[in-house]
Amino acid sequence: MEQLALGLVIALVLWIASIVLIRERRHRRLEDIGQLPPGPKCWPVVGNIFQLGWSVPHESFTKLAREHGPIMTLWLGSMSTVVISSDEVAREMFKNHDVVLAGRKIYEAMKGDYGNEGSLITAQYGPHWRMLRRLCTNEFFVARRLEAMRGGILINYLI
Question: Where are the transmembrane segments (predicted)?
Answer without folding.
Answer: 6-22
